[in-house]
Design a protein that fits this description.
This protein is α/β, with parallel strands linked by helices. It has one domain: Rossmann fold. 54% of the residues lie in helices and 13% in strands. It is built from 7 helices and 4 strands. This is Methanogenesis marker protein 5.
Length: 151
């Protein structure tokens, strides 16, 4: 299954999801598509008119352009998500997302989508970290069972 991860640039979450047999929907892959396009000469110039339209799907024109731009980048990940893992209060080293307003909109949008969502607090010690990994594994294992169960 395709699992939306939040923070969307967390290498740790991405690795965990992949290790347990799922595809992480990570921001790094979307950014790579933008900055390696031969038709664009520099990352600051990589926003297209279609990207702006994608951002307007989530936020009105009055909303700051940075929010709409970030949402346009997140759009393919949100659209593809079959489930999600959201980590709250994460340390900046875990995967900082940068914009508080965009972060709230992303979490609201993914929760509203109706896909299974696991919400966890960032672990602060070794025992919490072990429990964190166990909860992620159990969540992902249950998703496989649901998908494979006959209808």
């Amino acid at each position: 299954m395709k699992i939306f991860i939040y923070p969307a640039n967390s290498l740790i979450l991405s690795d965990l999801v992949e290790r347990f047999g799922h595809e992480p929907l990570a921001l790094m892959k979307e950014i790579r598509k933008k900055v390696t396009d031969p038709g664009l000469d520099s990352p600051p110039m990589n926003m297209t008119p279609d990207d702006a339209k994608k951002g307007l799907k989530y936020a009105a024109i009055e909303i700051p352009s940075g929010v709409r731009g970030r949402m346009s980048l997140m759009d393919p990940l949100i659209e593809e998500a079959q489930a999600a893992i959201i980590v709250e209060d994460a340390d900046y080293m875990f995967g900082c997302m940068g914009c508080a307003r965009t972060n709230e909109l992303i979490k609201y949008t993914i929760r509203s989508k109706g896909v299974p969502v696991l919400e966890l607090k960032y672990p602060k010690n070794e025992n919490e970290a072990k429990n964190f990994v166990l909860l992620v594994k159990e969540f992902l294992d249950k998703l496989v069972i649901k998908v494979e169960a006959p209808q």
